[in-house]
């Protein structure tokens, strides 16, 4: 009896390679640095709101546009750049996102009123908004299957680093110069250097296979096999049909394809991003203001918020250790709900100074266990031709929620419900999203990325 010789696909070869820090680890670090600047930029909104409110005599509604404009730009950038990444390549989008962000962040330094500043922050956000979906797609597609959950979860460890840098560096600059411009410029110089570093990263072999660029795919795959010291094996590169092209209708076509792939999964992922990130961005951008309203000094409020972000690094590392053991969904459910409840308790004890720091740190630790798992999960549930777009549209939903949500939160929800009541309402929405996840979306732990 003749036995058929099985020939693995090129993507199977990439997913079965050993992990090497000088190969896949280099891509993890370069991708993670882009994620770090995303965190730094978003967290900086919380610093800029009180500083610019004082300099330009802004009302709370006007000041909210500092963060809202930036996050709405990120929402637009998330699905535009994600579509570009799925249609013309990860590498092009990987580099361009940071370049647009750096150029318009520098331009923001020269703004003299809230309207111009908000417009420039919108465009800078548009550039940076594509960083997370594109980075997760690229890192995930280079990472071996047995390490993928831990690596994608560890990507979020870059977020608390960036958020903490925003708080600590800004506190130092404000103490030295009492000006909002140095904190804004501080994150641009390293971002410019990152643009050139990203040019050295190869294109994703899975994208090259999906677009029938077989010669380039073999070059990348063979290079990875050699660099990791793996045993070379025969592999096949299948010819794909119906390759989507970049066009004026590509954005909406990609959205249609994301929902056509699985409306249940997409609905669950969108609900998670919508609710969890709404809670997190409200706390990140407005906690310094809430603390100052409760009697904390400006520098103390910035440092406390920085501490919340810094301890999140421990949360992200704990999540990295637990994610393969518990599964994606259970870990995400417990940490997201617990973090939201802690924020309600913090709001209740905001005028009790000894209780504030422990609660802020506990919240920062737990919420940063939830977000890494959510990001890893969202990057695994879609196939290669939808991976960036699926994540990108979910990220866009979260940015819209995070942009408009805080504006509604401070101008309508808090006056109507009080701060604890408003956070309790938001926590209830998180519970709804978690329940929907268990009913609608699959577990992805240990599964191959789909071709």
From TrEMBL:
- Main localization of the protein described in the UniProt heading: membrane
Domain Major facilitator superfamily (MFS) profile spans what residues? 27-445
Q: Per UniProt, what is the membrane topology?
A: Multi-pass membrane protein
Q: List membrane-spanning regions.
A: 27-52, 64-85, 92-112, 118-138, 158-178, 184-201, 261-281, 301-323, 330-350, 356-378, 390-410, 422-441
Keyword list (alphabetical) reads: Membrane, Transmembrane, Transmembrane helix
Entries under Pfam families matching the protein:
Sugar_tr (PF00083)
Localization, UniProt = Cell membrane
Q: Which PROSITE patterns match?
A: MFS, SUGAR_TRANSPORT_2
Could you tell me the superkingdom of the organism this chain comes from?
Answer: Bacteria
Database matches in PANTHER family: CARBOXYLIC ACID TRANSPORTER PROTEIN HOMOLOG
Protein name per its UniProtKB record: MFS transporter
């Amino acid at each position: 009896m003749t036995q058929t010789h099985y020939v693995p696909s090129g993507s199977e070869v990439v997913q079965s390679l050993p992990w090497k820090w000088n190969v896949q680890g280099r891509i993890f670090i370069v991708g993670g640095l882009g994620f770090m600047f995303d965190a730094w930029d978003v967290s900086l909104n919380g610093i800029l709101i009180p500083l610019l409110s004082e300099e330009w005599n802004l009302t709370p509604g006007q000041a909210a546009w500092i963060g809202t404009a930036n996050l709405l730009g990120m929402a637009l950038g998330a699905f535009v750049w994600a579509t570009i990444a799925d249609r013309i390549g990860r590498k092009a989008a990987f580099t361009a996102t940071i370049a647009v962000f750096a150029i318009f962040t520098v331009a923001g330094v020269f703004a003299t009123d809230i309207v111009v500043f908000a417009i420039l922050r919108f465009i800078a956000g548009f550039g940076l908004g594509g960083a997370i979906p594109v980075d997760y797609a690229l890192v995930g597609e280079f990472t071996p299957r047995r390490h993928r959950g831990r690596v994608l979860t560890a990507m979020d460890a870059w977020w608390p680093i960036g958020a903490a840098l925003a708080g600590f560096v800004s506190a130092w600059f404000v103490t030295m110069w009492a000006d909002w411009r140095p904190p804004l410029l501080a994150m641009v110089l390293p971002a410019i250097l990152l643009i050139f570093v990203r040019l050295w990263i190869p294109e994703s072999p899975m994208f090259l296979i999906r677009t029938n660029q077989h010669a380039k795919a073999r070059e990348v795959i063979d290079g990875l096999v050699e660099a990791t010291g793996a045993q070379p094996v025969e592999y096949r590169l299948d010819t794909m049909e119906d390759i989507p092209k970049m066009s004026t209708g590509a954005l909406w076509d990609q959205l249609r394809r994301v929902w056509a792939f699985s409306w249940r999964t997409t609905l669950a992922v969108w609900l998670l991003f919508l609710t969890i990130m709404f809670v997190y961005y409200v706390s990140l951008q407005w906690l310094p203001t809430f603390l100052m309203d409760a009697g904390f000094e400006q520098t103390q409020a910035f440092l406390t918020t920085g501490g919340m972000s810094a301890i999140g690094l421990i949360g992200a590392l704990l999540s990295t250790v637990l994610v393969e053991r518990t599964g994606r969904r259970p870990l995400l459910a417990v940490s997201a709900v617990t973090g939201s409840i802690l924020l309600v308790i913090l709001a209740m004890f905001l005028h009790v100074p000894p209780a504030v720091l422990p609660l802020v740190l506990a919240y920062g630790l737990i919420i940063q266990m939830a977000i890494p798992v959510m990001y890893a999960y969202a990057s695994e549930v879609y196939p290669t031709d939808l991976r960036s777009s699926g994540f990108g549209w979910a990220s866009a939903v979260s940015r819209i929620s995070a942009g408009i949500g805080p504006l509604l939160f401070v101008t309508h929800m808090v006056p109507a419900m009080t701060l604890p009541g408003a956070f309790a309402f938001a926590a209830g929405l998180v519970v709804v999203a978690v329940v929907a996840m268990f009913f609608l979306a699959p577990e992805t732990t240990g599964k191959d990325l789909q071709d």
